[in-house]
Specification:
By secondary structure, the protein is α/β, with parallel strands linked by helices. The chain is 25% helix and 20% strand. The protein has 14 helices and 18 strands. The strands form five sheets. A five-stranded parallel beta sheet has the order 3-2-1-7-18, with helices on one face. A five-stranded parallel beta sheet has the order 9-16-10-11-12, covered by helices on one side. A hairpin with a 4-residue loop joins strand 4 and strand 5. Helix 1 crosses helix 14 and helix 7 runs parallel beside helix 11. The longest helix is centred in the N-terminal third of the chain and has 14 residues. The radius of gyration is 23 Å and the shape is globular. The protein starts with 44 loop residues before the first strand and ends in a 21-residue tail after the last helix.
Length: 483
């Protein structure tokens, strides 16, 4: 039920767990040109970004012999939320929500195949874990990325253009060396493109100047592990955000602070530190059935639904809540209360630096209407992620993208951007992954729908049932039948 951060070619970020990052295979000679167009046969599919979602697409595309596909990412190797691989943190989805299993249980790229490859099947069997560690999921994805052909890391996609004469997409890229320096440029052509460029950390407006300033201990949770030592050394730390990432960071800090001198504040805009909706019928909001139902709703209805469904994808795993309470309770064993303040319903109005490297937060309580100030030595922003805009990569064709009343790209049921007939009519398409929450609902960033969406894309792209998909996936019937 939820965290992908990093950029085009772009590296990629999890509700119920969500995704988005980018083997180091060498590019075809025809692609690694000096900048001149490569006059080669067009690819059937070019993927931009190699996070979990496009990695899923690549894994399911690999057995389709008639499909010529290649994927690019600017990172030198796959990485998935490296700043949040906190010891003990688990996925919020079962291990079956790997890259392929829910579309092809016999795939050689499944999580169980990974365990077999490193002789861990029996230990996993006896561990009886349905939800695996995040670090283990990351290791699994890296194993796939290092063995799956057709993946090109160290390739930054600079732009996607429409070549009207050839009725193809022109994909320009730059090859990057290990230090990120430019090596050369290249170009390839594609009949179809899949954008899996991930999401970017969301920073509240009042705190942006502090995050961007040097030496100020204000970081986004996506960067937590890199700064963890310094954060732990601060006399007082404030965590902002009521989702799973905020809870995991708060718990990690709490466990590593001396009893009675914790020096912690945890603030949240939501009305409560609430548990994720994890009932079995509630989870059916992460099925293809619900996705189809949501897509068919009128735009104003969809826009009203998503914010109200925050407990489906932005709340906290019940086990994490219990672990936090247990840790706090343990610290009352000899009387007294831990020096930890947990306050929901709070907005940060403004923020600024004060003397001695401290930060002052100006707070407002949503319901009380009261205001106060909080001085702290470090701030961790667990404030979520936003979809990366597509306009940069698609600047040359942005005028050909059809949009809804809010200016967002229209996305059809098969996860394709709705394009001008001059492109779509030629049978050329741009697929998007984790960029369609406004049209496909809360399951968009969920790892559990990755294989199904990839299979849907491949079935549509190949115009055949490469992967048979079930007609029904939920006991709940969403909506009434037409009469």
């Amino acid at each position: 039920m939820s965290p992908t951060p990093p950029t085009a070619g772009l590296a990629p970020h999890t509700s119920h767990d969500t995704a988005e990052a980018a083997s180091g295979t060498e590019p075809d000679d025809a692609e690694a040109a000096s900048g001149a167009p490569a006059d080669t046969a067009p690819r059937d599919l070019v993927g931009v970004g190699i996070g979990p979602f496009n990695l899923s697409l690549a894994a399911l595309a690999q057995p389709l012999d008639a499909l010529d596909a290649v994927f690019y990412d600017q990172q030198q190797a796959f990485q998935w939320h490296p700043g949040l691989l906190i010891d003990g943190a688990t996925l919020q989805v079962p291990f079956l929500a790997d890259l392929v299993t829910l579309a092809d249980p016999a795939s050689p790229w499944s999580f169980l195949a990974y365990l077999r490859s490193i002789d861990r099947l029996f230990p996993f069997y006896f561990a009886e874990r349905f939800h695996i560690r995040r670090a283990e999921y990351d290791a699994y994805c890296r194993w796939v990325s290092e063995n799956l052909p057709g993946l090109h890391f160290g390739h930054r996609v600079d732009g996607i253009h429409w070549d009207a004469e050839r009725s193809l997409f022109q994909v320009d890229f730059t090859r990057l060396g290990p230090g990120g320096h430019t090596q050369d440029s290249g170009r390839t052509y594609a009949k179809n493109v899949a954008l899996g460029i991930g999401t970017a950390p969301e920073v509240p407006e009042p705190l942006k100047p502090l995050v961007e300033a040097r030496g100020v201990p204000v970081i986004h949770s996506s960067d937590y592990l890199r700064h963890r030592e310094g954060i732990l050394a601060a006399a007082h730390v404030t965590v902002i955000g009521s989702g799973q990432s905020g809870a995991e960071v708060f718990l990690d800090l709490l466990r590593n602070r001396p009893a009675g001198r914790e020096g912690l504040h945890w603030l949240a805009r939501t009305e409560a530190f609430a548990p994720m909706e994890y009932s079995k019928l509630g989870l059916e909001h992460f099925t293809p059935d619900y996705t189809r139902y949501f897509h068919a709703l009128p735009e104003p209805v969809r826009d009203g639904l998503v914010p109200r469904q925050w407990q489906l994808h932005k709340a906290i795993d019940a086990d994490t809540i219990a672990a936090i309470h247990d840790e706090l309770y343990q610290r009352t064993l000899h009387g007294g209360w831990p020096d930890a303040v947990l306050t929901p319903g709070v907005l940060v109005r403004t923020a600024g630096r004060v003397a001695l490297g401290q930060v002052e937060l100006h707070l407002e309580h949503v319901h009380q209407g009261s205001r106060s100030r909080l001085t702290t030595e470090a701030v961790v922003l667990a404030t979520g992620y936003r979809e990366r805009p597509l306009e940069g990569l698609l600047a040359d064709i942005t005028a050909l993208i059809r949009r809804d009343s809010a200016g967002r790209p229209l996305v059809d049921e098969q996860h394709r951007l709705v394009l001008d007939p001059s492109i779509g009519g030629a049978g050329r398409h741009i697929y998007v992954q984790n960029a369609e929450r406004h049209s496909h609902g809360v399951g968009t960033p969920d790892l559990g729908l990755a294989a199904w969406r990839s299979a849907t894309i491949l079935n549509t792209l190949t115009a055949k049932e490469a992967y048979p998909l079930p007609e029904r996936t939920a006991f709940t019937t969403f909506g009434l039948p037409a009469t």
